[in-house]
Write a structure and sequence with these properties.
The strands form four sheets. The protein has a six-stranded mixed beta sheet with strand order 2-1-12-5-6-9, with helices on one face. The chain has a four-stranded antiparallel beta sheet with strand order 11-10-14-15, with no helix packed on it. Strands 7-4-13 form a three-stranded antiparallel beta sheet. The protein is about 15% helix and about 35% strand. It is α+β, with helices and mostly antiparallel strands. The model has no long low-confidence stretch (mean pLDDT about 95). It has a single domain (about 5-200), classed as Alpha-Beta Complex (Fumarylacetoacetate hydrolase, domain 2). It is globular, with a radius of gyration of 16 Å. The structure holds magnesium ion (MG). The site of magnesium ion has 7 residues, from strand 1.
């Protein structure tokens, strides 16, 4: 199983970090040791003073595929869950300024909390209109809608599969909307797709 993520997929998030809008999707990976499941608490690592939350819709890949055409892409995922792409922003900024890869800032242990529950694709009336949000201590911090993605689910799957074979069980983090920010000790993070709570974890 592998975890692939797309960066810079929502215009307002690109603007808040003053990044350039990429022509092609920006793709990076997290190792399986990044996963944090069953609402286990997130422990702030020693190497960062600026861990940011990034709430994201996560696709569960259900078939193996390579060079997948966009029109067939919807048959390659069967459920959508919710994840957080925790990012050591201070470390990422350092690496970015040197033109180095982001792995350590994005792929550290526990950097990918994932909902236990995944909602079957068939339960969504419109994949281009899925609302999701992150609350910190009960306050809404990030709010997104899949219709605002620069590259939609099909485009992401088609694009990645030109380079990397997708396999059953792989997870695709599809990018974060605006509102990212630092977490601190004692925060309680709750994540929702529509009004269904899928994530509820403490920061320690
Ligand atoms: Mg992200």
């Amino acid at each position: 199983m592998k975890i692939l993520c797309i960066g810079r997929n929502y215009a307002e998030h690109i603007a808040e970090l003053q990044n350039e809008t990429p022509d092609a999707p920006v793709i990076f990976a997290k190792p399986d040791t990044a996963l944090l499941q069953r609402n286990q608490p997130f422990f702030i690592p020693d190497f960062s003073q600026d861990i940011h939350h990034e709430i994201e819709l996560v696709l569960r890949i259900c078939r193996n595929g390579k060079n997948i055409e966009e029109k067939f892409a919807p048959t390659y995922f069967d459920a959508i869950g919710l994840g957080i792409d925790f990012t050591a922003r201070d470390l990422q900024s350092k690496l970015k300024s040197k033109g180095l890869p982001w792995e350590l800032a994005k792929g550290f242990d526990g950097s990918a909390p994932l909902s236990q529950e995944f909602i079957p694709v068939a339960n969504f009336p419109d994949l281009k209109n899925i609302n999701f949000r992150l609350e910190v201590n009960g306050e809404v911090r990030q709010q997104g809608n899949s219709g605002l993605m620069l590259h939609d689910f099909s485009k992401i799957i088609s694009y990645i599969s030109q380079f990397i074979t997708l396999k059953m069980g792989d997870l695709l983090f599809t990018g974060t909307p605006s509102g990212v920010g630092p977490v601190k000790l004692g925060d309680q993070l709750t994540g929702y797709i529509e009004d269904r709570q899928l994530l509820n974890l403490a920061v320690k």
